[in-house]
Design brief:
Shape: globular
CATH class: Alpha Beta
Radius of gyration: 17 Å
Number of domains: 1
Order of helices and strands: EEEHEEEHHHEHEHEEH
Distance between the termini: 38 Å
CATH superfamily: P-loop containing nucleotide triphosphate hydrolases
Strand order of the largest sheet: 6-7-8-3-9-10
Structural class: alpha/beta
Number of strands: 10
Length: about 220
Amino acid sequence: MNLHIDSIEKSFGEKKLLQDIFITCNTGEIVGILGRNGSGKSTLMEIIFGTVKAENKFVRVGKIIIKSVIDNRNLIHYLAQDHFLPKHLKIKTIISLFCNKEDAEILKRHHLIINFLNEKPKNLSGGENRLVEILIMLFSDCKFLLLDEPFHSLSPKIIEEIKLLIKQIAKHKGIIITDHQYQNVLEISDRVLLLKDGATKIVNGQQDLRRFGYLN
C-alpha cells in the first residue's frame, strides 16, 4: 500500500512555510524527515494527519483520499510531540482503545510496557509517558505511522530498543519519522528528506546534510 502526499502548501501570514511538498511512503518503508527548528516538520505531519489546515494539500492512502482526521481511521496514526494519552485511564485500557485484540495482547506482554499496565498516565514521568505512547502507536491498528520526535526524553538504551522495534514494525507498516537526533533517523530510514526553505531535498548521508547547511 502507498501513502501519497502531494502539493502541500502552508503559510503563516506573509511567510511561506511549506511549498509544493511531495512525499511518498510505502508499506514496509521508513522515510526520515530532517530539518532545523521552525522548518515546518511538525506542521507537515499535522497537515498530513488532518489536524492542521493547509492552503493546498492532497493525501491519499491506496485509493482513499484523506481530507480530514475522520478519514484516517485505521489508515494513518500520528505520534505528536505533546502527550495525548487519557490521564485517568489505566495503560492496559488505553492499549485496547488503539490496538486490535491480537496486537494488544502482544504489546501487553512486551517487557518495555508490562510494568506500566496498571498505571495511569497522570502518575508516570515524562519519559515513561513517551515510552508508553510510542509503544502504543507502533502496535496500533493502522497502515501508516507519523512519528514526531519519538526519541525525546528516552534514555540511550531505550532508544536502541525502540529503533529495533520500529524496524520490525515497519515490515508491516509505512513509517514517516522526524527527530532532532538525526543519527538515529539516518540509521533506521530507507530514505531521508531534508525540509529546508519550504521544500524537500533528498539526503544520502551526512555529507548532504553538510552541503545543505543542516550540519556545520
